[in-house]
Amino acid sequence: MARLFTPLLCAFCLLLVACSSGPVRRISEPAASIQQLSVAADGSWSVDLRVQNYSSIAMRFDGIRLELTTGGEAAGTLQGAPQLSIAQESADVVTVTLTPTAAARILLADTLAGGRSLPYTLEGELNAVPTDRGRARDYRIERSGVLSPVPGLPGVLR
Fold first, then answer.
1. Where would I find the Late embryogenesis abundant protein LEA-2 subgroup domain in this sequence (predicted)?
2. Is residue 56 situated within a structural domain?
3. pLDDT tens digits for 13-72?
4. 53 is in which domain, residue-wise?
5. pTM as predicted
6. Does 18 reside within a domain?
7. What's the pLDDT tens digit per position in 18-32?
8. Range with lowest mean pLDDT among 60-69, 97-106, 132-141, 149-158
9. Is the CB of residue 71 less than 8 Å from the CB of residue 111?
């Protein structure tokens, strides 16, 4: 009886130890991209940024500072303090208003008039902190993409 009890006790203890580790807490680099860019009547741009949280825990995004370049022209800086919590491995959208440079404004107007696509780049930082505990950190963002005019929606690119 004792010969059978000892291996069973050891197996039970190993099973107990294996279950006590809990879920993995992995913090990964977030990402940002432009989901939509809309031109207002006054010439300002409304930029919908898609912020992607690749971490296995929820993160709160407290700061955005991204340099936007469109078609090779510096357009301006997208800045904001969204205080936005994003669940693990999810995304959300933050809208930022931008008064673009004159060169970028002309380039976008020409692109829209010609119905062409517009390449863009984002470079800068997202400031984020785990919602459960931890300290804030700046994450470097470098993203390139292409926006195309939306048929039927003048002044809108996606």
1. 49-142
2. yes
3. 565 555 656 667 899 999 999 999 999 999 999 999 999 999 999 999 999 999 999 999
4. 28-147
5. 0.83
6. no
7. 565 666 789 999 999
8. 132-141
9. yes
> What 3-state DSSP class applies to 24?
coil
Within 13 A of 12's CA, how many CA atoms are on the CB side? Answer: 6
Is 95 contained in some domain? yes
Separation of alpha carbons 124 and 67, rounded Å: 6
> In whole angstroms, what is the distance from residue 42 CA to residue 139 CA?
33
Domain count, the chain: 1
Tokens of 58: 């929820």
Q: Who contacts 121 (Cβ-Cβ below 8 Å, separation ≥6)?
A: 68, 69, 142, 143, 144, 145
Q: Is residue 10 part of a domain?
A: no
Give the residue among 156, 29, 155, 32 at the shortest CA–CA distance from 93. 32
Residues 45 and 155: their CA atoms lie apart, in Å, by: 10
Distance CA 12, CA 151 (A): 64
SS (H, E, C) 70-127: ECCEEEEEEEECCCEEECCCEEEEEEEEECCCHHHHHHHHHHHHHCCCEEEEEEEEEE
Q: Any idea what the CATH number is for the domain that residue 122 is in?
A: 2.60.40.1820
